[in-house]
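Record pair follows.
FIRST:
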Amino acid sequence: MDYFEKMKQLLYNGNKHDYVFKDLSQRSFKRYLKQFSAEINKNITPHSFKRGAATTLYAETHDLLLVRDFCDHTDVSITQQYIDQVQDPNRTGSARFTTSYDFSKIDSLSREDLLKLIHSERELEVKAFNFGKQIKAIE
């Protein structure tokens, strides 16, 4: 079962006016969040939970259409505005200065180990697939 289905089973009973977490009504959930927010001096809302789940789902899958469906948005442009842009330290440059990488070790991997590595992370699979299409190795 994929991440989206697990989240949907956990959080959604099929009726948006029904219970949020199986036995917890939306009203009670909002009340508890308000009380907790006051205790920690932060504004936490049901929307921030949804946004956090959407951001996490996007970070895990990089699949904007899946996140759109999870959030029940009618337009993907709403989803693009909705999710936080996940910062990848490898793209920001900070990882290059804080870690020494010996990329030559990749060259010594067997085909089997390289495929295991690629298939170990959804993001790596997507990047490998998209790059393969870009260089026309995959049609």
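SECOND:
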Amino acid sequence: MGIESPKNHTEDADMEFHEHIKKLRESKELTQIQVAEAVGVAKNTYIGYEKGSREPRLNELKKLAELFGVSLGELCLESRDSGLSGMLKASFEATKDLRARDKAALLQVINGYVAARRIAQIQSSYNDVPEDIREELIRDEHLRNSEDRLLQEQEDRELDELIKLETAIEEHEAQNE
């Protein structure tokens, strides 16, 4: 089973907002009057949205998104700048039919990619730090590591002493019995 590129997304990428809300309304089998009432605007106002002669305010956009079951971004066609967003969404939706181990493998690939990108960003940020500050940070890190190592060695010695003391006490008690 292959993952196909969504055909309707290409059409949506060229669609204007007013065409998009009309398509969403029709897909939900709602009338203009029903949508206008749900959004809390006059029928003629909503018709203006679908004709492109009027634009909804933010609170009306939120109500439209909720009514149509989409995010504000999807409602406003934010992904039309790049067909990749729609393709990714369709690809992720197609994964619902995959077996659990295939999903896990795919998740590992995605996590690996995200981690690699994050590492590249950190390295890039590190390269932007002036050389003298980088050297100071490295020295500080070495000092912290040395201090941690010394503390761990001290804790290990104290633990060894405690074990020796407990062993001596147990031996002494065994001899006295």
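COMMENT: The chain is about 75% helix and 0% strand.
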